[in-house]
Amino acid sequence: MASHETRPAALTVSDLTVMYGEKPVLWDIDLHMPAGVLMAVVGPNGAGKTTLIKAILGLVPAVAGQIRIDGRPYAEQRQRVGYVPQRGSVDWDFPTRVLDVVMMGCYGRLGWLRRPGKSEQAAALRALEQVGMADYAHRQIGRLSGGQQQRVFLARALMQEADIYLMDEPFQGVDAPTERAIVGLFRELRTRGKCVLVVHHDLQTVPEYFDWVTLLNVRSFACGPVAENFNESLLRQTFGGHTPWIGDERLPSRVSTTATLPAVG
Amino acid sequence: MVDGWLDYTLRTVALGAALLGGMSGALGAFVFLRRQSMAGDAIAHATLPGVVLAFLLTGQREPQLLLLGAALAGSAGVLLWMAITRWSRVKQDSALGIVLSTFLGGGVLLLNLVQNRPGAYQAGLNHFLFGQAATLLSRDVAILAAGALGVGLLLLLFWKEFQLLSFDRPFGASLGWPMQRLDIGFTLLVVAVIVLGLQSVGVVLMSALLVAPAAAARQWVDGLGAMVLLAAALGAVAGVSGTLLSALWAGLATGPLIVLCASILVLVSLLWAPRRGIVWRQLDRLAAQARLR
Questions:
Q1: Which of A221, B96, B275, B277 is the most exposed place for a label (fewest CB within 10 A)?
Q2: Which domains does chain A have, with CATH numbers?
Q3: What is residue A78's three-state secondary structure?
Q4: What ipTM was reported for this prediction?
């Protein structure tokens, strides 16, 4: 750590390849994400966005590749990673209260046989406060709206006290107040030097919400600051010709469509 | 009647059934929430060849010996099921069907083999199909008590792990918990409880005693802890009432009676539970319609 000219890559993925049977879902992915960066992962359906998060977390086996956190192997650094799965991945009719779900965020550091106590409960309440859900702590999770469910998942991830957050479609089907709350939370996490990787489906909000972007469609087509990597040409390559782009008035003017493109492939 | 209630044998049997109902209710809450009711059924059926093989190999009818055979066969079935799911492209439910039919078919064949032998010494084996609680001795009840204590203790010790396993397994894995091993451990615990229930409830209906109390309990409460406790209580009630009914009409198999009692609890809960019950929801709807007029 002699020089601070380049910020350390908090999360580095190299040569990651995941196959389902014969079919590659992710092919030779390299990406790096420095601390204090909000990164969107965008790409068409079936591009492997969810698989990317799951492979980083070790939830699906990779046939090749390395995941490093601050240059050290992922397995040693697992407790520094927080995870927000897709909201639809659990049964919201499960008999449990909001506070119990948030508390699960600390189960990783508690370890075997230890039960969460008063201090964990206080931390869970603080996490709920951060996402504007303090009043719902004792509510049955089946009686929450979609946006509220999403915020409970975010609070659970905050409870992990991680440095790197991986979030799978947190904006999926949420109401406007929740979307604002999530964006506010992102900025707060960035100020605290955390980095957040978000699978995102709304291309229009990418420049507004995120600093970095990864364009993914089985292969990685770009990874870096939004200003240099989020343009129509690269998006067209990623989405295979037909960009689901609705007008470009929201594209920041500084984005050039012809300027130096990083080599692809 | 009063004599009957004080009868030592009956008390022993009722206590055994209460312990069995309690532990299968508590563990069944997790089975129910994990949507593994069918797995419970398959495991129960998979134990049959173990019972008969244990008898064939040793020539003895000691319940403990036969139950050991059942436990081995049940565990083998479970591990085979998990292995098929993990290492082949066969889906979980199909794998379950394969294991269930193979093991049950084998068990029934073996049972026929035994029954075609001369001599009546094999008569007891049939009881493992539908259960015969009257055969419970105080030694069996002691084993059931140890089992219930063990299940209660394990649920307490691994509460948060089983909670993760049931609610959000991928998240648990992302925290670094060995979810696959926890799954195997949990399922082997289910095997153990099913095996303990074979004597009184039998192969065919044991899974109902796992799932029915849980299904009933879920209607009344909203917390995991409350649901586990209530399911245990309802399971104990079903166990005791079924056993008593079976004692009143000697000759009726205990398994079906216990399961009928549990089913009545489910029916009542499905209809009348506040908020989730069918009647309650209908009334709610009518009230809402009345307000709109």
A1: B275
A2: 9-89+162-239 (3.40.50.300)
A3: helix
A4: 0.86
